[in-house]
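pinging the channel bc i need a second pair of eyes. not urgent but kinda urgent?? the chain im working w is below, pasted from the shared doc
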Amino acid sequence: GFALAIRVVAGGSGLNVAVVVNQNSSNSVELGNYYCEKRGVPSQNVLRISWPGGNADWTASDFDTFLRTPLSAMLASRRLTNQIEVVLLSMDIPYRVTLTTGSSATSGINSTTAALFYGFQPDGCATECPEGFPSCNLAPGSTNRYAGSEGVFRQAPPINTMSNSWLVMMLTSSNLTQAKAVVERGLASDGSLPTQRVYLAKSEDVNRNVRYALYDNALFNIQVDGVLNAMRTNTDTTFGLGDMLGYANGSYALAIYGGFAPGAMADSLTSFGGKIFEDSGHTDALDFLNAGATASYGTVVEPCAYLQKFPAPQNYFYQARGFSMAECYYQSLTNPYQGLLVGEPLAAPFAQPCQGN
């Protein structure tokens, strides 16, 4: 006989991940295969879709036809429904879901990751919308019950205990090499107990620096936990901060200098951080990944400055507790329906690995 040693970390393993690849994109297929190899995802956990369109937009109907329905059917037929907790979308899959097409669609836009996480959430704001934007409200029923739970995802799902939902992230970049590098950073971060600092920054952009109101509470919790190095600061850039484990700020055009340690979460509160393959003029989530972060977040339509739509700095406290990247971000997002999550979902720098024989 023999004993097989399996490395286990918090937030599950490759056995709990479903990888979705777009067969019409060789990059999507190669990246998906690369992730499966590096994270030990079995071939039966891979869903191959054939999306013929671009990598930015699809309608809610196409989203259901090409992704959500086939995913549910695949998991059921392969008896994986109760095993899969994380869904990874491997590049060249659209990141924005519109309820309809045309100029009137701004009243119904979600990110693909959020729509797969807990269902498409229509804004329900047809006339006299706040700020004049149909998307500037909190959609009825869009509250994520997993947020703030500090619990196991299966025991605290975002909708109800009978719902079939997943922690969804998109792994992508402007090229295949950079996307693979994100995977490598995730792997390097696992159980690394990094000592680099998390910076909770307040910019001079008064319309977007509003998360500073949440900083002190997060810092208190982080300091009580005692394993993660974090501080608050006033700055509009990352200049002079060196390698960071995390960075939270709010500015429409954030200058990113230096780099990030493996396992870093970094994002900015701005309108169009989720418009990753469009020239919005705003610092987007891919800018953070390209600078060395392992995960980031941004909204795909004008959200207005609702704190509930952006990651609370408490996500760094969850990280210090050992949660994975996907768990940290979704626990810190109360209403994530307009936001796109990008990066490596299993990365867990403070997870304590164990051995099972």
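so The mean pLDDT is 90. and The first strand starts at residue 6 and ends at 8. — does that match what u expected or am i reading it wrong
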